[in-house]
Design brief:
Elements lengths: L1 H42 L7 H26 L15
Amino acid sequence: MKSNVRAERVLELGESNYLVLKDSYRLVHELKGLVDRLHVGCLQQGKSMDYDTVSAIKLTTDRLYGELERYLRPECDPDSAYDEAMTEKVG
């Protein structure tokens, strides 16, 4: 029975990994489009940086970083997790 629960957990983690990757890709694609628009606008003479585009880039970057940090930080820095959230008990 324990191996069934573990197998289900592995499947859930795989689905979670896929969803984070898919959402991160979507956000990076959106961010690239915003940067491209800003770049083209800056190349056109007489047009300064568009505050709305810069704000959208900031918000998209913040969302992307926040999602990746929430997802990856426990993997990269396991000591950052709350004791209750840690997978191994520290003796």
